[in-house]
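Think of the structure tokens as a kind of shorthand, similar to the way a musician reads notation: each symbol stands for something richer, in this case the local conformation of the backbone. In the example below we present two proteins back to back. Begin with the first one, reading the sequence and then the tokens, and try to describe in your own words what changes along the chain.
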Amino acid sequence: MKETASAPPTLSYRQYNLPAVDRERKKVLTAFQKSLAIKFKSLGILNLAFMHRSVSNESGSKANNERLEFLGDSILGAITATLLYEKLADRTEGELAKIKSVVVSEDILSGIARELQIDRLLLLSKGEYLSGGRNKKTILADALEALIGAFYLDSGYKAAYAFVGRFILPEITRVLDNRHYRDYKSLLQEFSQRLDRTYPAYTLLQRSGPEHDRFFWVEVRVNGQTCGPGTGRNKKSAEQAAAKMAYEHLASVYFTKSGENPLP
């Protein structure tokens, strides 16, 4: 029988050189599918989606999720573009492109990966694991894209479209409502360069608590003004909080004076 254009590609372990999946791993992957209400025909391709290159580097095998991530990135982009095109009929191409770039950013994709508990399924080398690989945004975002690529190969575009839409549509709404994650340190640096060609300077004011439960206070000086303190469970999050205060203050002042809105 001739395969139709909409039919998913035929999979085989030989075609993709998929590593065998042991009994305990099968249980984990089955539970993962159940939690997401999806079903793979091949547990091997699903397992490959979580296999970081550090594992193949360590074992000498060629099996890792990089090719699936490459494919999934394109599938995710196509689905997101389609959803934006259908949902936002009044937006220009430039506006759609800006929204898409935020929706499929590493910050948002890694957050989705954590919500789906992909961090628990990652297969990492011992060195990558000890260096905190399960929490690295790049690894998480890549694994999510690899999962999308694997599901597309296993079940076809229609199934992948429905799956991706479930978690991308809410992110589109958050971006439109301006409730998405924003890297305020980068925004503040760009804005301060625009204003007076200087860089923000962060100062750690205080930290308290035991090693496992620290709390940090940070202030930032920019454009001749000091803002903060921002607080957080680690220095990075406290700096982000201080940067947010400074950026919103400077942006509001700039907006009042110029009539231009610099907020993205």
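Once you have a description of the first chain, move to the second and do the same.
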Amino acid sequence: MPTGKALVTEYNLNLFKLYEILKGDKMQEYWESYVKPIENHKALVSFNAGVADSVPNPEYIYVGFVKVKLNSPKEDGLVTQDESDDVGFIEDRLEMESLRWRSGKYIGRIITQGEVNFIYYLKMDFEWSNTVESAMGHFSEHKYEFGSRTDMEWEVYQKLLFPTVREWQIIANHHSCNTLKEQGDKLETERAIEHKVYFEDEENREKFISLIESKGFHKQDNIEVPFQGKTMYGVQFYRKDKPHYYEIDALTMAIIDMSENLSGVYDGWECSLVK
């Protein structure tokens, strides 16, 4: 029976799987998107998660941006369905010109406050203006500005684009919800949802078990896993809840809060498919 587990452990900031990925030679390139507040405004962030294992990359020490003004943004500052095609065309043209000029790597996009910010990392920035002007010359109906600066530590990628633990969990939640929904699950039916949390010592695990039991969860099993020369003390537990997008977000955020207060690490959830 399909469950939400496969997608959660693939995309979640899973302590053990993340370590295995990052110590490997290359992550497979893929993009993710999520919504977060930036300067108290709603922002849709898309980023190249596939470059995370090579950050910071000493070959690309400049960050370049192109800020394009939307002509008819939504009330919340994001892009409308009608104008999203234009954004896609601009994105494709920037990519085409960056390849032609060998400018650098496209690593992210932020849509907020009626503007689209395309973000690149560059080996050298002296041809960045040629790249941008060649691309934007095809879109005279859009106002834009551009620039570049040194960013040897890739702070824009790591601090602005890359998600926090909680944001990663929301990304994982929505992937899992989408998978269940594609299989015919309406997500509104309560069912047992299993979770795992790991701790560095048994004492905090026992405190956590007492805490979650007071919230109506039920312990299934204790788990002990070797990790980097030491033992992680985990607990698997469950409660009947709905795996619906916003409800599972609220639930997992609450569990992360409880686990972090005891220096624990949340390791995702799974549930059965219900049609």
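Compare your description with these statements about the second chain. Confidence is low (pLDDT under 50) at residues 1-28.
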